[in-house]
Specification:
alpha/beta, 7 strands
Length: about 230
């Protein structure tokens, strides 16, 4: 479909669950920065997300600006700002598309970001009110430089993000220490205290217990989207 800017196309990968009757609950995925360095979106990588369709929910993976074949060359703060705005438009355009499909339950949508996607998660959920839940895996606050545009960092948007949010982080994250980057972001979120949760697991930037990550994510989705009806 067409993007919300220029005349660019926005490819969208949609993975549907088996053995579940539509309309499907749906999770919109935002990848780690590895997607910036890959070139072929016909073979997308979605670490820590392939369990979503297996759990009975649809997984949506738009090819955001700057990822795969949609490369974006940033040459300074203004380009970084424009890039962030375009990825946010890609996210919102994806939800516009989902709302046109009868097999998608557009009233039960969740955001799921890993690393880069988790860092930008509060920004995305602050400007997009159609999400009913959010999961941020291996995220935290950016450490801005004097030239960093405020439009590109979570701390500019986190107080305005009120969606129920689960943060999952490694206790020894070398990129985002708990005391300086993770806990402050959690505290900064505008989500009421009873609807946000911080889970610290053993590991570094990405927790070392995939099964526990999966359990936490699915429990959160069950809580805020409702359990999947498998017809059983």
């Amino acid at each position: 479909m067409l993007s919300a800017y220029g005349d660019e196309r926005l490819p969208i990968h949609l993975f549907l669950p088996r053995n579940v009757e539509p309309p499907y609950q749906t999770v919109v995925y935002f990848p780690p920065s590895s997607a910036v360095y890959l070139r072929d979106s016909s073979k997308p990588s979605f670490p820590f997300a392939d369990f979503i369709p297996k759990s009975g929910r649809a997984l949506v993976y738009p090819v955001y600006q700057g990822t795969y074949e949609r490369q974006f060359d940033s040459h300074g703060p203004n380009d970084d700002r424009d890039w962030t705005i375009q990825t946010a438009k890609d996210l919102r355009r994806t939800i516009d598309y989902l709302e046109t499909r009868e097999d998608i339950d557009s009233d039960r949508l969740a955001y799921y970001g890993l690393s880069w996607g988790a860092y930008d998660g509060p920004l995305m959920t602050a400007i997009e009110p159609r999400f009913k839940a959010s999961v941020l895996l291996a995220g935290g606050l950016y450490t801005p430089t004097p030239d960093t545009p405020p439009e590109t960092v979570a701390q500019s948007f986190a107080p305005r993000s009120t969606v129920p949010t689960l943060m999952i982080n490694g206790r020894k994250d070398f990129r985002a220490p708990v005391e300086t980057n993770i806990q402050p972001l959690f505290d900064m979120l505008g989500t009421p205290a009873e609807h946000k949760r911080l889970v610290l697991l053993d590991g570094g930037h990405v927790p070392a217990s995939p099964n526990e990550v999966i359990r936490q994510v699915l429990d959160w989705l069950d809580l805020y989207l409702g359990p999947v009806d498998d017809g059983g």
